[in-house]
Design goal:
By secondary structure, the chain is of the alpha+beta class. It is 39% helix and 16% strand. The protein has 25 helices and 24 strands. A hairpin with a 7-residue loop joins strand 8 and strand 9.
Length: 803
């Protein structure tokens, strides 16, 4: 009787325990019924695939496509008894149990492939005994309902291999740039070693550790009888042709993410992930690549101008006992370097002749010329002797030492008897954005939202509202052209003070960038040299309301202050908004709605939605041409001079905000508009002299040269309502026999000057300018007296406080 009671108690306890651990476990039959939802495919304008949006990560492949050697490698290293057990490896579990008891907690899993699949599909990653029990139960259920091949198929398509790669196909693409069926034994051994600890064994993190792990996998394959020792030795000795993580083909992640958000907003999550939609964008792949490469190179150049920030990290070299080979020997020659790419390397030695580096198992060096940008910024140490008459440059050991982890660019591949050549690099902290669009259609041809999508997914091209600086000035001048001004109109460039401005301190006295003033100035010259005073005075004459109204019609949606600081670009705009607004001037004054998605099709190709170009006339064609003519001079001899390198007619404008926080260049040719913004997300200064001309226009130039290299050169076409006359450069009136300098100028028909310039006109302008300069000097004098009185009052008050 007691035995029966005991049996009942044990039965009830066991049943209760089983119920407790299984009460909320899913039925594993769902694994057989799993559907691979098609997701949404996103295409460029030439129907080349830009990216996919899928509910499940990775790209499933059937087991029959997976090389036998890869399956064997996975089984050998993850679960040697996989084909013999029924979901559980009791020897492994006992070993793990003893380890965990000794450690006082869960430290080792002892999980089979089936248990790992159970954890991936149904359980959380927490390390607890209760989760382990659930894992065991699920593994038994999976083995009872699925074949070994079905388990392997699911496992290989779900397991994580690091660097965002889920499943074996995605891993093959991420690490080696090939489909899984093309993997070699050497590559299979590397991938098989990753699931245990992807971040630790990644070849991008530590190639030496990767090679040791690869050798372990190959040794296990020998032990299991899958390969011979000779095959293992051959596989281990083969160089690994690793794919660069920043793949050239993956050039539009910001576009893909923008499309994902838009499609989800329009059609919902179910359609996005399950309906097999096809989205056709307006992106030109060649222009997109040009924009990505130009922005990344330009941001690197800017970052380098401000010196080397130091190594990424420092790792002390591994100590050896003299018998074991060190890292240099074990990994040397084991990878193929990607020429021109930026990769991570480790400093192995430093001398006066340069720096020895090991990068992806390849030995090489950085000569002093390859790190000059960093060495030139180092100042002599206190008491260090500097040879007279010679340019001093710091020695490499002033900035690097053995064990430093650094970023390098592959400048030259290793040759017989010579190692690779590297250039010192560093990933910039500064950010930027670039946009290109077709002025005639509004089609967005390129969109780059930052330096690296992997670092930051925030799309600055679409969502970063930043002060436009002088890049806003063309809107003031466009409104002025519509209001009857011409490029020849004269405004006196002299110091001015405004007392009536709301929301500003009384006595606001704006200045030109260089704090110089040039008297009577034509609007063309003022815009070319970005003169602040002339633009402010012009805004005051034209009026805030017309200028703000024009900016709004052109698509500027950010905050615009209702005071004269608007002339200096205190309003905010996104790079896309600003570029689309400029594009209107290239399109005869008609603003085209920016379009990224031109069509959405269903799974069978039926068109669900399409978008045609939509335009709205905002500025007259004549005013647009006058402004374009002036903006061409910004490039010809003004602040945008670097853009002349494009080698074709270009109109554009630089922009720089206070303290060099934002740098812009926005411009256009007759058939392509583009904008570049550079700045920090936290709105700190870019550094001294980092203007739009220096920080942004080189990026704009590089991407436009590449984007237009196959496009014929076209001029800006003058509309019928514009005339050209010879004028006196000093007065803006018609040229006369005694004009000292004459130039051709464009005017709206019927708005040309009607009389010739005279000496009296020139003297009148000089007199007006003299009076303004005298008034400014008087204000400064009064200001000085007021400040002295205030100082004396302060001194008396201080004395009274002391008394």
């Amino acid at each position: 009787m007691p035995a029966l009671v005991l049996a009942v108690i044990i039965l009830l306890a066991g049943g209760g325990g089983y119920w407790y651990f299984t009460r909320d476990l899913p039925w594993v039959d769902v694994l057989k019924d799993q559907k691979a939802y098609p997701g949404t495919k996103i295409y460029a304008d030439d129907n080349v695939l830009l990216g996919e949006i899928k509910f499940e990560k990775g790209t499933p492949v059937p087991l029959k496509k997976v090389p036998k050697s890869l399956v064997q490698a996975i089984v050998a290293v993850e679960d040697a008894h996989f084909f013999r057990h029924h979901g559980l490896d009791y020897v492994g579990m006992l070993r793990a149990l003893l380890t965990n008891i000794w450690a006082g907690g869960v430290r080792q899993g002892g999980s089979t492939i089936t248990q790992q699949l159970a954890k991936i599909m149904f359980l959380t990653p927490e390390r607890t005994f209760s989760r382990k029990i659930r894992e065991v139960i699920l593994a038994r259920r999976i083995e009872a309902r699925l074949t070994k091949d079905e388990i392997l198929d699911l496992y290989l398509n779900k397991i994580y291999f690091g660097h965002g790669a889920y499943g074996i196909e995605m891993a093959a693409q991420t690490y080696f740039g090939k489909h899984v069926e093309a993997l070699t034994l050497s590559e299979s051994a590397v991938l098989a070693g990753l699931p245990k600890a992807p971040n630790i064994y990644s070849p991008y993190a530590d190639l030496d550790r990767t090679k040791r792990r690869q050798k372990y996998v190959l040794d296990r394959m020998i032990e299991e009888g899958y390969i011979t020792a000779e095959e293992a030795k051959s596989a281990y000795s083969k160089p690994l042709a690793l794919r660069n993580l920043r793949k050239k083909t993956d050039v539009a992640p910001y576009v893909v993410e923008a499309v994902r958000k838009e499609i989800e907003e329009r059609y919902g999550q179910e359609a996005l992930y399950q309906k097999g939609l096809k989205v056709y964008t307006t992106i030109d792949p060649a222009m997109q690549l040009a924009a990505v490469q130009a922005l990344q190179a330009g941001l690197r150049d800017l970052d380098k101008r401000h010196g080397f920030r130091g190594p990424v990290e420092h790792r002390e070299p591994r100590k050896t006992d003299g018998k074991k080979k060190d890292e240099d020997e074990t990994t040397a020659g084991k990878t193929v370097l990607p020429l021109g790419e930026v990769i991570t390397g480790r400093v192995t030695a430093v001398s006066g002749d340069g720096v020895s580096v090991l990068a992806r198992g390849v030995k090489g060096r950085i000569p002093p010329s390859g790190m000059a940008w960093a060495l030139n910024k180092v100042r002599p140490a206190k008491g260090e002797k500097v040879p007279k008459g010679k340019k001093w440059r710091a020695a490499p050991d002033r900035i690097l030492k053995a064990g430093d982890i650094i970023r390098v660019r592959v400048a030259a591949l290793p040759q017989k008897g010579k190692g690779a050549l590297f250039d010192l690099e560093q990933d910039p902290l500064v950010e930027g954005a670039a946009v290109m669009l077709d002025p005639a259609t509004g089609f967005i041809r390129a969109l780059v939202g930052g330096f690296d999508f992997g670092r930051s997914e925030f799309n600055r091209a679409l969502h970063a509202r930043r002060q436009a600086g002088s890049a806003f000035k063309p809107f003031v001048y466009a409104a002025a052209m519509d209001a009857g001004f011409s490029p020849a109109s004269i405004i006196i460039d002299a110091p001015v003070t405004y007392d009536e401005q709301k929301d500003l301190k009384p006595g606001w006295s704006p200045e030109n960038y260089d704090r110089e003033y040039f008297g009577p100035t034509r609007l063309r010259t003022a815009l070319a040299y970005s003169r602040n005073i002339v633009t402010i005075k012009l805004l005051k004459e034209v009026g805030l309301k017309p200028v703000i109204g024009l900016a709004r019609q052109l698509g500027i949606s950010g905050p615009l202050p209702e005071d004269l600081t608007l002339a200096l670009g205190s309003g905010s705009a996104t790079p896309l908004d600003l570029t689309a607004a400029y594009a209107a001037f290239a399109n005869g004054g008609t603003r085209m709605k920016p379009i990224l998605i031109r069509a959405v099709a269903g799974a069978n190709g039926e068109i669900i939605e399409s978008e045609e170009p939509q335009g709205e006339p905002v500025v007259s064609p004549e005013s647009s041409y006058l402004l374009t003519s002036m903006l061409q001079d910004v490039v010809a001899y003004g602040t945008g001079w670097r853009v002349r390198e494009v080698g074709r007619p270009v109109a554009g404008k630089t922009g720089t905000t206070n303290d060099y926080i934002d740098a812009w260049f926005v411009g256009y040719t007759p058939n392509l508009a583009a904008g570049v913004w550079v700045g920090y997300d936290n709105e700190k200064s870019l550094g001294p002299q980092e203007t739009g001309s220096r920080a942004a226009s080189p990026i704009w130039t590089a991407m436009m040269k590449e984007a237009l290299k196959e496009v014929p050169v076209e001029p800006f076409v003058r509309p019928p309502g514009v005339t050209v006359l010879e004028i006196d450069a000093a007065t803006g009136l018609l040229a006369s026999f005694d004009s000292e300098e004459t130039i051709p100028e464009v005017f709206k028909a019927g708005k040309e000057p009607t009389r010739a310039s005279t000496q009296a006109d020139r003297e009148a302008l000089e007199e007006a300018a003299r009076k303004e300069f005298e008034a400014a000097a008087e204000r400064e004098k009064d200001k000085g007296k007021t400040e002295k009185k205030a100082a004396r009052r302060g001194q008396r008050q201080t004395q009274e406080d002391r008394d």
